[in-house]
Amino acid sequence: MEAESAIRTIWNFHHMEHELVLADAILVLGSHDTRVAERAVEIYQQGLGKWLILSGGLGRLTEGIWQTSEADLFREIALKQGVPDNNILVENRSTNSGENFRFTEKLLRERNLFDTLQSFIVVQKPYMERRAYATFKKHWPNKECRVTSPQMIFEQYCESSHPEINQEAVVQLMVGDLQRLWVYADQGFQIPITIPDQIMVAYQTLVKAGYTQHLVHIL
Questions:
Q1: Interaxial angle between packed helices 129-139 and 3-14, expressed in degrees from 0 to 180 and rounded to the nearest 10
Q2: What DSSP designation does 126 have?
Q3: 55, 84, 176, 201: most buried by Cβ count inside 10 Å?
Q4: Which fold has domain 16-151?
Q5: What does the DSSP 8-state code read for residue 145?
Q6: 3-state SS, residue 174
Q7: What are the two backbone dihedrals, phi and then psi, of residue 145, each rounded to the nearest 5 degrees?
Q8: What is the pLDDT of residues 160-217, one digit of tens each?
Q9: β-pairing verdict for 88-91 and 119-123
């Protein structure tokens, strides 16, 4: 398999292709890509969720670069686009996907909302859709989850003013996130996800091509 074909294959696999329906809340997982916040606002304005829950402190791609938490920056974007502050909840301490869910659950329990909210639309980067779903189902197995991300093809997504979002960086990240699907499942952080043979061939192609920057080193 050629590298270009492998890139498209893995990019497509990361997408869950969920059809969005009315949910109790929209959960936005923090990111260095503000287009995630813009996608969440779009969904909110379509009337698909009452609550906009923003989760994210400073992660490995924003720590030392941003002066404010991912969730607080996303809140500013939501407010500027007309989302009422009363419908926004902010969790701004988490630094990884597992903490997104643990700390958000703590926040929702403090607000007496955790048992009430049973269905969620989770918004994440395109190459993290499948991992967001697997993490959600590990932490909240009895709740309903549909996942979405900025609606862009690969080339569009790589066109960004953010220095960390370009084709080289995106491929490095999405190869790392693919590997995390089985590594984190083995470590108990996510539910297991079936990886088709074609996806493993694409993964091995890109690893051999040098896309190893964000791989987890397993002892």
A1: 40
A2: G
A3: 55
A4: Rossmann fold (3.40.50)
A5: E
A6: helix
A7: -140, 130
A8: 766 678 899 999 999 999 999 999 999 999 999 999 999 999 999 999 999 999 999 8
A9: unpaired
**What CA–CA distances, in Å, run from 150 to 3, 201, 209?**
24, 27, 27
CA angle 109, 113, 117 (to 5 degrees): 125
> Would the CA dihedral through 55, 170, 153, 82 be positive or negative?
positive
Backbone angles phi, psi at 43, to 5 degrees: -65, -45
Are 22 and 48 a contacting pair, CB within 8 Å? yes
Query: What are the pLDDT digits (tens) for 103-153?
Result: 999 999 999 999 999 999 999 999 999 999 999 999 999 999 999 999 999
Token match 């920056």: residue?
73
Structure tokens at 12: 């497509």
Burial class of residue 210, CB neighbours in 10 A (0-12, 13-18, 19+): exposed
How far is residue 90's CA from residue 70's CA, in Å, rounded to a whole number? 10
Sign of the torsion formed by the C-alpha atoms of 169, 163, 183 and 137? negative
Q: Which helix (H) or strand (E) holds 54?
A: strand 51-55
Q: Which two tokens stand for residue 137?
A: 């189902």
CA–CA distance, 2 with 185 (Å, rounded to integer): 28
Listed residue (126, 122, 124) closest to 157, CA to CA = 126
Report in angstroms the alpha-carbon separations of 4 from 120, 180, 211. 34, 21, 12
